[in-house]
Amino acid sequence: IFNTAAQNPALNKLPYFEECIKLSGATSEDLTPKPEKMTHESKCFFFCAMKKEGAIDATGMYKPKEIFRILKLYHGIEVPADQIKTISTCITALGKVSHLSAVMDPTKIPGFEECLESSGTTLEAISKRPVTLDHNVYCFFKCAHEKKGSLDADGNVVLDKLLDVANEHNLSADQRKTLTVCLEAVGKISACEDVEKITKCLMPMKS
């Protein structure tokens, strides 16, 4: 699908193309056909595009019918009728797309190497989707929040830093308000596991 999308000469004519390019930081090189080597920026671009098209709704859920519509409309791919149910079930089983896990490249976190070493986790562990949240992984993300300045020296949430997520990932006003209320209730982060409080605010959770 990515290969076909990237080859589509009309890709840059999409009404939201420039906006998604700006939000993702993607270049023409990022959007060239190389599905086995999708860059962080190309993933961000297509994440943005899928949200604009309604293939990912406001709650972060994939919408199979919209994905099929996009494939047919823009890429000339019509999913065989006998495969629709199977593919829809598979897509639905993916659950919600987290704003964090869908776009975050762990290696681009400030102090990445230092946090990896101090936490005792591995790149493989923090790159898995979904991430298995064990003690070491929590410690990695606690360290990352400290390096980014979203946690101060006393373990207090720096709200403005975390609300940058809203600006970077184009959250709606309602989503931003919900995020603000959630983060204001987090309290002090002391133990590594306390980071889960932030994680639950940043990542849409399955009900």
Overall strand count:
0
| Main beta-sheet strand count, sense and barrel state | none
Residue-averaged pLDDT:
78
Radius of gyration: 18 Å
Shape: elongated
Cα(first) to Cα(last) distance is 29 Å
Query: Counting H and I runs of at least 4 residues, what is the number of helices?
Result: 13
N-to-C SSE string, H for helix and E for strand: HHHHHHHHHHHHH
Kindly name the structural category. mainly alpha
Unreliable stretches covering 5 or more consecutive residues: 1-6, 98-103
How much of the polypeptide forms β-strand, as a percent range? Answer: under 5%
Helix proportion of residues, in percent? 40-55%
Fold blueprint:
Blueprint: H1 2-7, H2 17-24, H3 40-52, H4 64-75, H5 81-93, H6 99-103, H7 112-119, H8 123-127, H9 135-148, H10 159-162, H11 164-168, H12 173-184, H13 195-202
Helix pairs in contact: 2-3, 7-9, 12-13
Pfam families: PBP_GOBP
GO molecular function: odorant binding
InterPro entries: PBP/GOBP, PBP_GOBP_sf
